[in-house]
Every structure is written in C-alpha cells, then in structure tokens.
Design a protein that fits this description.
InterPro entries: 4pyrrol_Mease, 4pyrrol_Methylase_sf, 4pyrrole_Mease_sub1, 4pyrrole_Mease_sub2, CobA/CysG_C, NAD(P)-bd_dom_sf, Siro_Cobalamin_biosynth, Sirohaem_synth. This is Uroporphyrinogen-III C-methyltransferase. One of its GO terms (molecular function) is precorrin-2 dehydrogenase activity. Its EC number is 2.1.1.107. The structure is a single chain. By secondary structure, the protein is of the alpha/beta class. Helix content is 29%, strand content 20%. Helix 7 packs across helix 8. It binds S-adenosylmethionine. The site of S-adenosylmethionine (SAM) has 24 residues, from helix 9 and strand 17. S-adenosylmethionine binds next to helix 9 and strand 17.
C-alpha cells in the first residue's frame, strides 16, 4: 500500500470498535479507546488481568472465544492484536471487504490504519506518525510533549476546563476568560506536583504562592508572570486570607488565569475551601487540583508508611496548632489516645509537649514509636526517631522547627530491616 497516511481524529463515542486479542498489545490500546467513549467489543479466549478488570467493570463487552466474521457487524474500526499472522490476515480481509479500517499490530504494512504516538495536554492532542517507524514517532512525540510541558506557547490562552465547583468539568470562565486553579504543589520536592498542576502553572498569568511551596517551581515561571507571595501580605492571618481571596477574585475578573499554589494538598489544612467559596461567590470558576499531602509524603520521605499490613489499619491526620488544654481545641485528644493505628500530627511542634502528655494520660503507651520529619521530601529534610513519652524533649534537644509532621504509631519501625 503506498501514499502518505491521511491523519484524522476519530470521534468514537458510542461507536463500535472491535478489538481482537487479549494480550499486551490490546491492553495498551484499550485505555485510549475507552477514553474516547468507544463501544468496545473485545474478542479473545483469554485476557490479561487489566483487560479482565475492564470487562468485569462493564467498560467493554468481552466475547470469550476466537474471532467470528459477524463480530464486525456494525463496527467502525477494528484493532487486530493477535500473535498469529494468518488469523490477523483473515480478520483484515473481512474488514477490507466491509470497508472497515483495520489496525494490525503484527503487520503495519498490511494495515489500513496506523495508531500514532500520542501526547495529551489538557484539551490538546498531538498525534505523531513516524512514517512506519513507531520508535521515531515516539521520539518526536516525547520531544513535543517536553516542549508543551516547558511553557505555554501554543497552549496559550489557557484551556477552559475549569468547573465552577472544583471538579474538572465543562468550562465557564468569567466573561473576560479569567479563572482560578487551586493547585496543590506537593510537600516540598518540586517533582511531587501533579502533571495537571504543573501544566496549569506553566500556563498561569498570575501565581499566588504560599510560604511552603517549593521555590524551584517558582523559579521556572516566565518573567511576565505576576507572582504574589501570600506569605508577605502585611496583615494578621484573618485579614491576610481575605486579602488573598480578593486578589484571586480581582485578577480572575480582570480576565487573567490565576494559579493559587498551595503546599501539599489545598484541602488539607490549606484553607482551599475558603478560597473556593470566595471565588464561587464572585462568579469566578475554579478548578481544584489535589496535591500530594505532607501528611503522607513526609512520612514516606522518612521511610515510614502511614499504614502497613498487620500493623496499622487506620491513620488519622490531625492539626496540633491548638493545644489540647485550650478551650478553642476541636480535637478529642482523649479519643485519639484510644486508637491503635497511626496518628499524623501537622502543625504540632509548638504544642507537642501538651499533645504527647495528653495522649499518654489517656492511654496511648509512652513507648509508642514516634518520628518527627522536618521539611520532608526536600534536600533539607531532618528526621528524629523517638517515642511518644519523650518526643517533645527530643524535638527541643535536636532544635527541630516547622514545617514538620509528627507520626505516632508502630508503623514508625515497620520498614526497619
Ligand atoms: C498549613 S499546613 C498545610 C498542609 C498542606 N496543605 C499539606 O497537605 O501538606 C502546614 C503544615 O504542614 C506540614 N508540612 C508541610 N510541608 C511539610 C514538609 N515538607 N515536611 C513536614 N511537614 C510539612 C507541617 O506540619 C506544617 O506546619
């Protein structure tokens, strides 16, 4: 077959696609077909566990047998992913007779359609055909993906995928196109931001950053991006939050794409909810991009899993910023003391003596292992191992300071060799 390939974007939603074969190739092809909303008929005597999971979940229909000619009834496309070349050729012949495009894993030259190497960035899909050489296609695809990830360029203006209430959904930017993304920056290691968070950051025109966000992420911003350092807003905490809300709303209503970059996850002691409500109240659409929270990642950074089989069946994340003996405390520490699992305390260093004493008083054994992790996942990470009874004294002696988490429970030694 000669002639250069003619690229198309197939809109497969609700349309029958037949996949023949249940092995590794079919497994790799399947997610994109399902993502496109195709009505997939999978014909194969056996399936890989991943394909089986799709079938069990009802995402596709599985015929547990070999291919039959009638399988192509009503099909728009067939993907042949079988090892046997003569079987593949036979399916391909039937597809040809019925004028159904046929992708063949075993013989690209005999196929009537090729699958490109693909990268997706928000609403943009880049598909690369390598002139019959899939490795060339993948190399070009990777280069394009890196280019797109490096800066807004062709993706500017930003995609309008901002749902009005935090869940990614249909776009409805402000009349002038502005919107806010509440993005979790992760615990400290700049590589622990999500792919979506990073993309929105590269597309932002305004970035309002918290004290705890990884500085390297900010270094990468284009010079024309307005960077607002939320830590430098010169009011008390309550006024500062109002001020931040106002900045988000004002910039978005002026038509700008704003990223509110927050340490860890925006909704874990991050006041993300207040910012979402302020934006929603002003008619500004918001996308929420969850982040990797320090509650889990700083522990992991110190080699501590927050759960471990046969050690802990629960983990509880609690803020220690209010002392247990304060009337303002909303935490029932006496109940937490009765739990056997893992307790992760954020913002707890200042009150650690009172917290640990309360937990011991109400029944958590003083010998329970504890670890304190300062600046977890960063190059400056510091860790001390201790026990609940003496952890506060150990923190003072070691001179540990915020940001730090305290993890209490038998998981602390669970991975010790
Ligand atoms: C206002 S809370 C914000 C938590 C954040 N939203 C999250 O999900 O990680 C700040 C507290 O998070 C904890 N924290 C944040 N980053 C940390 C890190 N890299 N290492 C240890 N603790 C961290 C500390 O307890 C700090 O006082």
């Amino acid at each position: 077959m000669s002639g250069s390939p003619y690229p198309l974007g197939l809109r497969l939603a609700g349309r029958r696609v037949v996949v023949v074969g249940g092995g590794v190739v079919a497994t790799r092809r399947m997610p994109a077909l399902l993502d496109a909303g195709a009505d997939v008929l999978l014909v194969a005597p056996e399936l890989t566990p991943a394909l089986r999971a799709h079938a069990d979940a009802g995402r596709l229909r599985w015929e547990r047998r070999r291919f039959a000619v009638d399988d192509l009834d009503g099909a728009w496309l067939v993907q042949v992913a079988v090892d046997d070349p003569s079987a593949a050729a036979a399916i391909s012949t039937v597809a040809d007779e019925r004028r159904i495009f046929c992708v063949r894993a075993d013989d690209r030259a005999a196929a009537t359609a090729w699958t490109p190497a693909v990268t997706r960035q928000g609403p943009v899909t880049v598909a690369v055909l390598g002139g019959g050489d899939p490795r060339r296609a993948m190399a070009v695809r990777d280069a394009v993906r890196d280019l797109l990830a490096a800066g807004p360029g062709p993706l500017d203006p930003p995609p309008a995928d901002a749902g009005a209430r935090g869940v990614p959904g249909p776009a409805r930017p402000t009349r002038r196109g502005g919107h806010v993304a509440l993005v979790g920056a992760g615990p400290g290691d700049p590589e622990l931001i999500t792919v979506k968070g990073r993309r929105l950051l590269t597309e932002a025109e305004v970035v309002v950053a918290d004290r705890l966000v990884p500085g390297l992420l900010l270094d990468e911003l284009r010079p024309e991006v307005e960077l607002v350092d939320a830590a430098k807003i010169p009011y008390g905490p309550a006024r500062a939050q109002e001020e931040i809300n106002q900045i988000l709303v004002d910039r978005a209503l002026a038509g700008r794409s704003v990223v509110r970059l927050k340490g860890g996850d925006p909704y874990v002691f991050g006041r993300g909810g207040e910012e979402l409500l302020a934006c929603a109240g002003a008619g500004v659409p918001v996308t929420v991009v969850p982040g990797v929270t320090s509650a889990i990642a700083a522990a992991a950074g110190a080699g501590v899993p927050v759960t471990h089989r046969a050690v802990a069946h629960e983990f509880t994340v609690v803020s220690g910023h209010v002392s247990p003996d304060s009337s303002a405390s909303m935490v029932r520490w006496e109940h937490l003391a009765g739990l056997r699992g893992t307790l992760v305390i954020l913002m707890g260093l200042k009150n650690l003596a009172a917290i640990s004493a309360t937990l011991v008083t109400y029944g958590r054994p003083a010998q329970t292992p504890a670890v304190v992790v300062q600046e977890g996942t960063t190059g400056a990470q510091r860790t001390i191992r201790s026990t609940l009874g003496v952890v506060a004294a150990d923190v003072t002696a070691a001179g540990l300071r915020p940001p730090a988490i305290v993890v209490v429970g038998d998981v602390v030694g669970a991975l010790d060799l």
